[in-house]
Amino acid sequence: MRQSDAEQVPRFPFEAPGALEPPVEWAKLREGCPVAKVRLASGDEAALITRYADVKSVLSDRRFTRPTPADDAARVADTESGGVFNSEMATVMPQHGAAHLNWRRMVGKWFTAKRMNALRPGIAAMAEQLIGEMVAKGGPADLKAGLAFPLPVWVICDMLGVPDSDRDRFAHWSDVMLSMTRYTQEEFDATQAEFGEYMGAHIAAKRAEPGEDLLSALIADTDAEGERWSDALLTATGIGLLIAGHETTANMIAKMVAMLLADRTRWEQLVADPSLVRTAVEEALRWDANAGVGMLRYLTEDFEVAGTVLPSGTTAMCSMAAANRDETAFEAAAEMDLRRSPNPHLAFGVGAHACLGQPLARTELQVALEVLLRMLPSLELAVPAEELRRIEGLAVGGLRELPVRW
């Protein structure tokens, strides 16, 4: 892969100079080694792909999908610390083929633009409550703990018909299951069992007394189509939606606000013109240099990428964040342009496995930003941007905290 075997294989993910800055290796690899051999946290090797066109090509190719337990694929992390990558959920959820497309079709009914617009007032009310409570306690405050972390779990719990009193438990379960290094396998197994037991009881209650929630709708719709979903699949779906929809969006809200406050002229631009919120959210998604490990694909046949033939059996690590900084795809890619449009970034992936919940994520990000701009126009960082700290041990990238004042 344009690297001699004698060279030491670099460890991936790479270290970055700051919480909001990209690793220097991204630009070097895009320029000189777009298909690079890297060693993952597990010790296994993978082919890292960093150019926009190449990442899009691999992710869009229907022949290749996420590695399954039957594949001899590289592991992101070892079994002691793999988090959700080693969970039972991955074996229950259909990963490819007709079953996967059917699963996406059934669940996707809940993520239409019409339904997201209907959710906006409720999400705004939640954000207003959280910001109001944060302000009442006085500043400086941690915006991640006060708003970014609780808001998405409140939204997901509401969609799943989970009582407000169980929100904190859901947040903890999500944190454990997305951790790659911070919890032991015993802690992860205990959390998975506890979460599964809760969801099993919750689904039984929804079968007995349906509500106006996603799980009740899935039960009714699949029964009506003669494709009754098992409790295991419904449980895995509920867990999957929480994990995919909570930690990723929670971290993105905090990172987005940090990006805007790190150069406060960006924040001031939005205060002066809130109509830029939608394009600003898209640009934050593109510009995110702390997005996490990327997306794995297992190649089931030889495949040429950037002039390199990757043999069947290769595990490709597609770095959407590196691809989003590709100068050949985005003019002045290293700059954050709040008016950038169009903005065909790959933050949500692309192809058959593109993030199903991206309409919800976009809605939450837009609403959180709109409410912050309205309620706290004087918001600013309480520490220098270079003192912001990345969180370690998560499959998605984030900040440990976001100290702010107003």
TrEMBL record:
<dbReference type="Pfam" id="PF00067">
    <property type="entry name" value="p450"/>
</dbReference>
<keyword id="KW-0479">Metal-binding</keyword>
<dbReference type="InterPro" id="IPR001128">
    <property type="entry name" value="Cyt_P450"/>
</dbReference>
<comment type="pathway">
    <text>Antibiotic biosynthesis; vancomycin biosynthesis.</text>
</comment>
<dbReference type="GO" id="GO:0005506">
    <property type="term" value="F:iron ion binding"/>
</dbReference>
<protein>
    <submittedName>
        <fullName>Cytochrome P450</fullName>
    </submittedName>
</protein>
<keyword id="KW-0503">Monooxygenase</keyword>
<dbReference type="GO" id="GO:0004497">
    <property type="term" value="F:monooxygenase activity"/>
</dbReference>
<dbReference type="InterPro" id="IPR002397">
    <property type="entry name" value="Cyt_P450_B"/>
</dbReference>
<comment type="function">
    <text>Involved in the coupling of aromatic side chains of the heptapeptide of vancomycin.</text>
</comment>
<dbReference type="InterPro" id="IPR017972">
    <property type="entry name" value="Cyt_P450_CS"/>
</dbReference>
<comment type="similarity">
    <text>Belongs to the cytochrome P450 family.</text>
</comment>
<keyword id="KW-0408">Iron</keyword>
<keyword id="KW-0349">Heme</keyword>
<dbReference type="GO" id="GO:0020037">
    <property type="term" value="F:heme binding"/>
</dbReference>
<dbReference type="GO" id="GO:0016705">
    <property type="term" value="F:oxidoreductase activity, acting on paired donors, with incorporation or reduction of molecular oxygen"/>
</dbReference>
<dbReference type="InterPro" id="IPR036396">
    <property type="entry name" value="Cyt_P450_sf"/>
</dbReference>
<keyword id="KW-0560">Oxidoreductase</keyword>
